[in-house]
Design goal:
Helix 1 (about 20-30) packs across helix 8 (about 165-190) and helix 8 (about 165-190) packs across helix 9. Helices cover about 40% and strands about 15% of the residues. The chain has about 400 residues and is α/β, with parallel strands linked by helices. It contains 17 helices and 13 strands. The strands form four sheets. It has a six-stranded parallel sheet. The protein has a three-stranded antiparallel sheet with strand order 9-10-11.
Amino acid sequence: MSAGPLSDLRVLDLSRVLAGPYVGRLLADLGAEVVKVEPPEGDVTRNWGRVIAGLSGYYTQQNVGKQGICIDLRRDGAPQLVRRLASRADILVENFRPGVLKQYGLSYEELAPDNPRLLMLSISGYGQAGPEAQRAAYASVIHAESGVVHRQAAIDGVQPVDPHISIADTNAGLHGLVGILAALHGRDRTGRGQHLDVAMLDAMLATDDQLHLALDDMPMRHNQVNEIWEVSFGQVTIAGDFRWIWRQLSESAGLVDPTPAGAPLEQKISLRRETVRNYLRSLPDRVSVFGALERADLAFGEVRSSQAALMSETARVRGTVVPVDDRAGGMRRVIQSPYRFSASKTGAGLRAPYRGEHNHDVLERWLELRGDEIAKLEHEGVLLREEVPR
């Protein structure tokens, strides 16, 4: 197979936590050379999850395959060093609060004259300009303000609860990746780069397929919730409303309608639901449950734990979980990016970087700096290098 489809691109990743690093990870999986620039304190996610040889699981997942350099922007000469790196990059990814990079002379308007082909992706909560641009935004904040939390609580009749997944971050990251790929295509035509402004709130609203109801001033649907059913080995979810489930199962399994003539609708639904519940519970094992639902032509899924999902047959066959170097003489697992090309090699890199691990390599190749020049920058505190744990 050929090299990754983006193997001719250089990416400068100034981002941290999730939305930006997720973009960088996907670009690296697609073959791009991605250099992660960290401050002396490092990305906060270095402390999230199980730590092996100084690298956490969370940090490894979002930064595997990248090279790492460590620059203290507060030092004299540091912003100029980043500016020089940006002049050699195809793509720059950042998710600082709007205006932060401008304080260091690193805004797109300041970088573009040195590199007119540069594509810069900025991810923020509410966009680069506007009345809320300066607000701090985390995934949970955007989940609440995009309507997702309220709608889920209203439909389920429970207290509002934030989803246990950072949808707003990864959603914005994916939209950012799409935008960058589109901008690359535009650059091929025009020869010029551009600045891409992605707001997490925009990304959530754009991806919410249920918002057409709000746009048309219609109530959110309460009768289309896919239900969870108890079975002999655990739980399954069956897609579709109950009327469809009853119709399909009664025809395929010969379920007898228990409702007396003239029964009110609520009683009819309750009695039929009990009949379906008893039928599903009577099936002795996974094979018989799945067989009955397949014969009924129903779409269904087992309610699995995260560990069970990782060990599923589909995940195994598709290589969804892959081992990478844990930097301690062993291997640890990460999730593979979902792209499977017929003629291009893609996927997770070998390892995640330590802070400043690739200072010398990157600066020698990108900027042609000599060893003594790099050593001087380290002596001045512009560059830092983490001691690799033994």
